[in-house]
Write a structure and sequence with these properties.
346 residues, alpha/beta, Quinone Oxidoreductase, Chain A, domain 1, Rossmann fold, 8-stranded mixed β-sheet, 6-stranded parallel β-sheet, 11 helices, 27% strand, binds zinc ion
Length: 346
């Protein structure tokens, strides 16, 4: 088995992993087909998150079930699956009090994670982390199920109403996926904003949404030209940078809502927070993934992804496993909005 590992800050290595990965009860083994690079993986590589606290690497993967432990129900050998939170314990305080998305840490769910040719995944009767992937979604697009689930969470938390204007700050994959879901949920004008030139150019070329360069001194004026002088109804904050919340305060209209899915590292100093009161802003956090299931027990996210997958093709770049370093590097530089590593040619 081969896996990608972080040796130190900024240092990736492809390792031959000899220790046998054993399937225990309530777990399955998945032969990985592809794994997406998440912003949180980049943070780990950049030393913004503590490596010592993480026991897995890669959580946006698709693959085939190759072994099934005792007690596992709902999956069969050979099934194509994707990582997605499907069911939580229902017993812990968070589950009992309306926050099933805060049930378990992924440290208890994945080993060694999706950046490996094989991974173990917890899939018990009381906690399921795999969705069955329909044939209409390929192995590469399937890696977007987990991030789409997280984007769906931020959209739902934004309580978008028909025709409302939206500013999406941060044009990484989360921001783009959220923008496409918002469109389907009835949003009016959707504007994206970022500082990264490559990302701005890619999104502009894609034609998915209009964009504003945050480095422009008149960015707020530009925004008002698009959405009216009162400000936007909803701001989606997806940058990971604390200062961006200050931009959200400026951009939101009186009574506006800010939905935050950013994984912040660091503190927000020198932030003008007066608009929270003056504008009576609503600020909500959105922590994905969330176990959203339809009444027939299928994934809400997969249904939503099927509607937007053609558009999302425009932001994906595929890399061979041997080019994993480049996949990460391009994502950090903004050359690639969504890097997906393929295990096909291993
Ligand atoms: Zn992710
Ligand atoms: Zn729980």
């Amino acid at each position: 088995m081969k896996r990608l590992a972080i040796l130190d800050i900024g240092k990736l290595e492809i390792q031959e992993y000899c220790e046998e990965v054993k399937v225990k009860p309530n777990m399955v083994k998945v032969k990985v087909n592809a794994c997406g690079v998440c912003g949180s993986d980049l943070s780990l590589l950049q030393g913004k998150r503590d490596l010592k606290n993480e026991h897995y690497f890669g959580h946006e993967f698709t693959g085939i079930v190759t072994e099934i432990g005792d007690g596992v129900t709902g999956l069969e050998l050979g099934m194509r699956v994707t990582s997605e939170l499907v069911k939580t314990c229902g017993q812990c305080w968070n589950c009992r009090n309306g926050s099933p998305n805060c049930c378990k840490s992924l440290n208890e769910v994945l080993f060694p994670g999706g950046f490996a040719s094989e991974t173990i995944v917890l899939h018990s009767d009381s906690y399921k982390y795999l969705s069955i992937l329909p044939t209409s979604i390929d192995d590469i697009m399937g890696t977007l199920v987990e991030p789409t689930n997280c984007a769906l969470r931020v959209v739902k938390r934004s309580k978008i109403q028909p025709g409302q204007s939206v500013l999406v700050i941060g044009l990484g994959s989360m921001g783009i996926i959220a923008s496409q879901l918002l469109e389907n949920f009835g949003a009016g004008k959707i504007i994206g904003m970022d500082k990264n030139k490559s990302r701005l150019e890619t999104v502009k070329k894609s034609g998915l949404i209009d964009v504003i360069n945050r480095n422009d001194l008149d960015w707020l004026e530009q925004l008002k030209n698009y959405t009216g002088t009162r400000g936007v109804d909803v701001v989606i904050e997806a940058t990971g940078f604390p200062a961006a919340i200050g931009d959200a305060f400026l951009a939101a209209r009186v009574g506006g809502l800010i939905s935050v899915l950013s994984v912040y590292h660091g503190k927000a100093n020198n932030l003008d927070i007066l608009p929270i009161m003056r504008k009576e802003l609503t600020i909500v956090g959105a922590k994905g993934p969330y176990p959203d299931q339809k009444s027939d027990d299928t994934s809400v996210t997969i249904g939503e992804l099927q509607k937007i997958q053609e558009k999302l093709q425009k932001i994906i770049r595929i890399y061979d496993f041997k080019d994993s370093f480049k996949a990460f590097d391009d994502a950090i530089k903004g050359i690639s909005i969504k890097s997906v590593i393929s295990f096909k040619n291993m």
